[in-house]
Backbone:
């Protein structure tokens, strides 16, 4: 019996589909291989950049460590030389009974040793890490801390204060000075006398002189207290006895003062754009003209002065576009550190041992502290009548422990310590 022929199956489409799928799989395989290679190349570039940056950073660190090591070694050698010289001087002078020369030499050497050990700063270059071609911000590769300023000032409220209700109370404190022993001297404008306190605010003494009228600014040295008064009188009082040892009555209104190792006593001339130099007997021995473009006669007043660690003259101007300016020894302008936007009005300021600027802003009723470059570190206080508040802060000074003293001359009538 004959059977029908089985239908013929067409397999060509299936074979073609399998071929296309194989070809597509081969294509994706090649793409995956190429992508893996690109990723490997990119990671190799990243590792290369990281190795280069790490090498640069290590070189910078090694250079800075080498500089620090050299500085420390030089400082140690200099201190040893000074100590050895002092010992030899003591041995030599002991045989000749020249104790007064020995005392002077010891003071000078101790000051130089103190500068070498405590006041020298090393400014290192700023290191920045940059990496391309990829973004690595989410990786904390390194952290460099700013150690230019070894400490920051406290923000806590006043630890102690002296007000009108206490013994030796203040009626209108203005100028302020602190000696090396931490003793605080305050010029009471209304009572025309100097109140003396311990560093804890305990009243010690009252200094009075018949020539002292409305004292404004104070300056203290090892043995003497200098007082500048509203009646254009400049006095020198003995710290030990409180008695007047020198006086000068001048037509010039001397405001802020400071002691300089080379010039002696330096005083600002309030009405003029100049500073005066005085000898030990308070006789005027010269003037330095301050060459600044920001002084308007009759409007701007030269209020206060301090000598920086670099032996430059930092001068405070009242009602100036640039309240704090720095000059060299010849009176040439070096820089304008602060602007009127940073300090609205100030009559007093001081420098700490690192040349940080502490300035009382009477318009903002605050104590403001700036770096030696003029960058704001912190603000302390606000307008008010509680401890830690101010109503026209004026005289300011800082002791060797970093405690800050501020006089408040309106309504509060207080000395506050922070």
Residues:
């Amino acid at each position: 019996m004959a059977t029908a022929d089985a239908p013929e199956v067409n397999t060509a489409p299936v074979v073609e589909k399998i071929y296309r799928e194989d070809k597509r799989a081969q294509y994706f395989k090649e793409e995956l291989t190429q992508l893996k290679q690109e990723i490997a190349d990119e990671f190799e570039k990243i590792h290369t950049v990281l190795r280069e940056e790490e090498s640069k950073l290590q070189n910078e660190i090694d250079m800075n460590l080498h500089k620090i090591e050299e500085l420390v070694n030089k400082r140690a050698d200099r201190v040893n030389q000074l100590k050895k010289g002092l010992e030899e001087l003591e041995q030599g002078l002991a045989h000749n009974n020249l104790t007064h020369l020995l005392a002077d030499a010891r003071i000078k050497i101790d000051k130089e040793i103190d500068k070498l050990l405590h006041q020298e700063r090393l400014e290192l270059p700023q290191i920045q890490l940059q990496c391309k071609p990829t973004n690595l911000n989410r990786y904390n590769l390194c952290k460099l801390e700013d150690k230019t300023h070894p400490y920051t000032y406290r923000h806590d409220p006043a630890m102690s204060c002296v007000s009108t209700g206490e013994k030796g109370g203040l009626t209108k404190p203005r100028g302020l000075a602190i000696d090396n022993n931490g003793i605080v001297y305050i010029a009471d404008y209304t009572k025309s006398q100097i109140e003396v306190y311990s560093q804890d605010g305990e009243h010690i003494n009252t200094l009075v002189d018949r020539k002292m009228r409305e004292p404004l600014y104070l300056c203290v040295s090892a043995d003497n207290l200098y007082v500048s008064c509203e009646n254009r009188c400049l006095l020198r009082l003995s710290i030990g006895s409180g008695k007047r040892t020198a006086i000068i009555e001048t037509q010039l209104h001397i405001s802020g003062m400071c002691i300089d190792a080379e010039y002696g006593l330096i005083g600002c001339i309030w009405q003029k754009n100049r500073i005066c130099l005085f000898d030990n007997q308070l006789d005027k021995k010269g003037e330095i003209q301050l060459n600044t473009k920001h002084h308007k006669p009759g409007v701007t007043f030269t209020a206060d002065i301090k000598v920086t660690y670099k032996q430059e003259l930092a001068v405070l101007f009242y009602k100036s576009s640039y309240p704090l300016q720095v000059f060299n020894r010849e009176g040439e302008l070096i820089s304008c550190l602060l602007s009127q936007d940073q300090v609205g009005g100030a009559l007093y300021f001081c420098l700490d041992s690192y040349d940080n600027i502490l300035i009382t802003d009477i318009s903002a009723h605050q104590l403001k502290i700036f770096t030696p470059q003029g960058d704001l570190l912190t603000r302390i206080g606000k307008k008010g009548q509680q401890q830690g508040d101010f109503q026209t802060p004026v005289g300011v000074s800082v002791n060797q422990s970093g405690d800050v003293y501020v006089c408040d001359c309106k309504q509060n009538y207080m000395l506050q310590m922070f």
